[in-house]
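Annotators were shown the component list below and the corresponding predicted structure, then asked to write short factual statements about the assembly.
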Amino acid sequence: MASKRSVGDLKSADLKGKKVFVRVDLNVPLDESLKITDDTRIRAAVPTIKYLMENGARVILSSHLGRPKGVTPKFSLKPLVPRLSELLGVNVGMANDCIGEEVEKLVAALPDGGVLLLENVRFYKEEEKNDPEFAKKLASLADLYVNDAFGTAHRAHASTEGVAKYLKPAVAGFLMQKELDYLVGAVSNPKRPFAAIVGGSKVSSKIGVIESLFEKVDILLLGGGMIFTFYKAQGYPVGSSLVEEDKLALATALFEKAKSKGVSLLLPTDVVVANKFAADAESKVVPASGIPDGWMGLDIGPDSIKTFNQTLDTTKTVIWNGPMGVFEFEKFAVGTEAIAKKLADLSGNGVITIIGGGDSVAAVEKAGLADKMSHISTGGGASLELLEGKSLPGVLALDDA
Ligand SMILES: Nc1ncnc2c1ncn2[C@@H]1O[C@H](COP(=O)(O)OP(=O)(O)O)[C@@H](O)[C@H]1O
Ligand SMILES: O=C(OP(=O)(O)O)[C@H](O)COP(=O)(O)O
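Structure shown to annotators:
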């Protein structure tokens, strides 16, 4: 990817009094009472916002939260306002929408250095469709565009890609630049052996990535919700575990491809199963081939942790995306915590460790190990796509330097 124009190239004269549409990734984990459980992505957005405020810009923040289908109160960005205000040292305004008359009035009332947060841009289906009319409406709110949403840069959506066509200049924020600088450097010529650990629940988007990862990595460890599709493809019973039925053929093909590429593909040999999806579920450890009917796999088991640890001991670079289990429930956090601890130890021994993704980072933060890692990335899917060698649409759309 050609290098992109940066927000740092814009000076006070370019910014004073200007309305700036800033796409950030504030897709943070919230608990049931809508309390933020990890604020990494909010903190990461601060340097760009502060720079704009200090140079007298009027800052319009736009983000998504979760994957809502239409307007859904539990995916509102409102719970983020107090923390954002605290970090920025100003009262951040909140709009009830992301386009329309009310938003235009709030934007018009913004003082120089003021900040307004727009409501979840995914409340409109046009966002993910990258609808040009919707992108134009977003663009019409401002005088220039900054994209600092690295975590969403792999999505060609209206607020990440479309808007850059209608709002110029369109530049990269400081977080976007920092992530690209680090990740492109670390993965273009990695120290080997190079391992990727992939878990989490976004099976359909990540399973496709695995094939390309075979071109880059020497070792691939799988955990989280991903593994049951592979087990089922091997003919194992999976009970009521998460499975992507339409990816079974792909999973079978991936076993073959790993062999032909000489990549060690490791699946957990045992799993922790639960009788329901709940913190207080009954649980037991079973072999990967023995998940009973009516039970679901929610974590990797102790034998798998041991094998994964031994394998990781042989590596020089590791990228980790997606938790090994449902770590939000204490009972099923053991595998994720073990991997976090292993990577922290390896970092201390000179291994490059890169953690990507909202939930993986939250798990590492929860374990108090974030500062031990080489790089904490705010993008899971985005960092994996970079690793695959793909260009990110949210970056491509920006002005060349
Ligand atoms: N075995 C599993 N079954 C269902 N969900 C799982 C399983 N393992 C992990 N998860 C869930 O995956 C989610 C994180 O997935 P994902 O968004 O793909 O990761 P990241 O945000 O790190 O990229 C967590 O909420 C976790 O509870
Ligand atoms: O959390 C995100 O991605 P990640 O889980 O891959 O890190 C981003 O906010 C993108 O969200 P999306 O995968 O719903 O487009």
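Statements collected:
1. The mean pLDDT is 96.
2. The two ends are 11 Å apart (CA to CA).
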